[in-house]
Amino acid sequence: KVPLLKQLPNDQQPLLAGFCETCYYQKGEVVMAQGEPGDDFFMVKAGQANVLVNGEQIAMLNPGDPIGEQALLSSEPRSATITAESSLTLLKLSRAKFEELGLKDKVTFANRKAVGCGGGRTLVTQPPSPKTQEERQRMAQAMLANQYLSTMVILDDTRINAMIDVAWKQNVAAGDAVITQGDLAADYFYLVQEGNFDVDVDGEVVCREGPGGSFGELALLCLVPRAATVKATSDAVLWV
């Protein structure tokens, strides 16, 4: 279920599992804090965990969900705070052990076709669409303006340009839902090129996104259900 670890040879995966440590947390305990250096990767074995960004809950993690796989390759600051929603059991693997086993050289971060895709599904992608310099600038500005995305990852020029390079255009008709609240197939992040969208949580419109806006950023971070329904209120064009 973890894109990074799925790149390991099959004979290495049991070896990796054997070096995981079991950790226990009581309800309310903090597993990791946003902004602190990341040295360990976790997998939820039992219980539930909250994902909070800037103090706001954005997702709930369940058994089988991964936490912080980026820590196996680098010490980037944690992009979110994780707390135990209930009695929580996690499997932990440290970056030091990962490197000791010689596994770091056998993986790279998941490529575009693996981002966010779990549960054995095949992620459908399209060839990148050509972009003008003006479009690239607008896309970069939209990413930097996304308050959650900018706290989840370090948005330097290299990373921004890599995301822009692989994006394709998608036309959306008025009334069409691009994502649906609760959908487990949370695989794509969207930038609005043209048109307008309502963001609906539990039947209530909580915000609207227009040109220069974006949504679906959690798909770039973790495998969790969609937190809202996003529907076009006019004919629109998205970058995916």
What is the topological layout?
Elements: H1 3-6, H2 13-18, E1 21-25, E2 30-32, E3 40-46, E4 49-53, E5 56-61, E6 66-67, E7 81-84, E8 88-94, H3 95-100, H4 133-145, H5 147-152, H6 157-166, E9 169-172, E10 177-179, E11 190-194, E12 197-201, E13 204-209, E14 214-215, E15 229-232, E16 236-239
Antiparallel strand pairs: 1-8, 2-7, 3-6, 3-8, 4-5, 4-7, 9-16, 10-15, 11-14, 11-16, 12-13, 12-15
Describe the largest sheet. 4 strands, antiparallel
Shape descriptor reads globular
Return residue spans where pLDDT drops below 50 for at least 5 consecutive residues.
107-121
The tally of beta strands, per DSSP, is 16
So how many helices?
6
> How many whole angstroms does the radius of gyration measure?
18 Å
Lateral arrangement of strands in the main beta sheet: 1-8-3-6
Spatial separation of the terminal alpha carbons: 22 Å
Category by helix and strand content: alpha+beta
